[in-house]
Design a protein that fits this description.
The chain is of the alpha+beta class. The chain has a domain of 209 residues. It has 17 helices and nine strands. Strand 7 and strand 8 form a beta hairpin. The protein is globular and about 75 Å long.
Length: 446
């Protein structure tokens, strides 16, 4: 292969994209505060959990009560993200002049805030996130809206349906501290999340400072977090036969993709046609040899291959294995929302502690946005997937303008009344439907 061909096959660099995001965020004008009802949604769940955290853990850690308490820093970081404030200095000016969320105007310096971003234990923000997620999940359970057929089927048979995946965080800005002397901007680290595919809410989020950390490094945390009766879906980067056996022993059902070079021995076929192969196979070395299930589906001239530890095709039919694995993409959607919409591609400070504070705060706001989008889905009687989270977020500006003009008083009512104009419903895309998939994998079909 020629040198030119090799260069053409290299993955495109994201440095230019990252720099563009950083420049865009740092040059943005001041954004108006959120409307009263939007601000109330931010306060409703997050504020009580923050108070509990400050009154218990904060004091238990021996932290002094000072001006920039957890109470203040939570309001500041959430406001920086939600309002997409360009930098910390702009956020400090807002705090000094008008206050942020539940904090009244407060005179503090930028230096003090920068120091606090590096010293306030990030675990406090994580504790708040862990405390509020069950509240949002309870709200989701109380609502009624249609689910995709494969998720509705799985929800009735499994304790929970979750997907896990990792994502590398973008580069840090080399403007201060030890980063200033570096020739290249270091990556901010790596996060791994477990997402509930029905509610779209995160169950767990972990951070690793090493941006080159492989997905396999997170298996110990994943194994500790998963409960019996869970259906876990993950990509082939997590392939580990030893862990597969541990998941089976823990009564966790899993679905993943199969590698092209998977070494296996066929035990027997459960179903075989021109388009679908469903078989039991032996994998792994002699001491760790185990029986799992391999499913191959031919679609548009390409074979798609999936693995699962559910050996009974009646308990987990072929079409549901394929359709449920496709739902794994919802965790990629979650990463897109946190990074592109909520700005986790731009970091306000280069310290590891500040990165963690922003990371946990971003997922807090992601949960608030999921809860709001789900309320819209219920009001429209549409699946969550049919509603654009990005457009719900952007529509809040127009709601604020309508409130100022005296034309709106209720957030959900405004969004529902202006659904088409605001573009809240996603455009339908041509894709393989679940019904067509059932026909493709039906033994009685063509």
């Amino acid at each position: 292969m020629s040198q030119q061909a090799k260069l053409s096959k290299r993955k495109a660099s994201t440095v230019r994209h990252t720099r563009a995001i950083q420049r865009d965020r740092s040059k943005r004008p001041v954004v108006a505060p959120p409307p009263e009802q939007v601000e109330a949604r931010l306060k409703e769940v997050i504020l009580p959990a923050t108070r509990v955290e400050q009154d218990t853990i904060y004091r238990a850690l021996g932290l002094r009560v000072r001006t920039l308490t957890l109470f203040v820093m939570m309001a500041l970081v959430l406001s920086l993200i939600w309002r997409q404030v360009g930098n910390v200095s702009e956020g400090v000016r807002l705090l000094n002049t008008e206050g942020l969320l539940w904090v009244a105007a407060l005179s503090v310096s930028q230096q003090a805030v920068n120091e606090r971003l590096g010293s306030l234990p990030a675990e406090l923000f994580l504790h708040v996130l862990v405390a509020v997620l069950p509240v949002f999940h309870t709200r989701w359970q109380a609502r009624q809206r249609p689910l995709p057929p494969e998720l509705a089927w799985a929800q009735a048979r499994y304790r929970q349906i979750v997907a896990c995946d990792g994502s590398t965080l973008d580069a840090l800005v080399r403007k201060a501290g030890l980063l200033r002397g570096l020739l290249l901007s270091p990556l901010a680290g790596r996060m791994t999340a477990v997402l509930n595919l029905c509610s779209r809410l995160p169950c767990q989020v972990w951070y690793e400072a090493d941006p080159t950390a492989h997905d396999q490094r997170f298996w110990p945390q994943l194994l500790a977090a998963l409960k019996a009766g869970t259906l876990l879906i993950f990509d082939l980067g997590y392939t580990n036969f030893k862990v597969f056996a541990q998941l089976t022993a823990a009564q966790v059902t899993w679905i993943t993709r199969a590698k092209r070079n998977l070494a296996h021995e066929v035990e027997r076929y459960l179903y075989r046609s021109a388009n679908v192969h469903d078989m039991l196979i032996w994998v792994g070395p002699a001491k760790e040899r185990q029986l799992i299930r391999l499913i191959e589906v031919l679609y548009h001239g390409k074979w798609y291959r999936y693995l699962t530890n559910e050996l009974d095709a009646e308990r987990l039919p072929t079409e549901y294995v394929v359709a449920l694995y496709w739902q794994r993409w919802r965790i990629e959607d979650a990463y897109a929302i946190t990074k592109r919409l909520l700005g986790l591609a731009y970091f306000y400070s280069g310290s590891e502690n500040a990165v963690c504070l922003q990371l946990w705060a971003t997922w807090l706001l992601y949960a608030v946005l999921v809860d709001l989008t789900d309320a819209v889905a219920e009001a429209l009687n549409k699946p969550f997937a049919a509603i654009s989270m990005a457009m719900v977020y952007r529509s809040l500006y127009y709601y604020g303008q309508a409130v100022d003009r005296g034309e709106a008083a209720d957030l959900i009512a405004f969004l529902i009344a202006n659904t088409e104009w605001l573009g809240l419903l996603k455009r339908e895309r041509k894709r393989l439907s679940f019904e067509l998939l059932k026909t493709l994998t039906n033994p009685a079909g063509p």
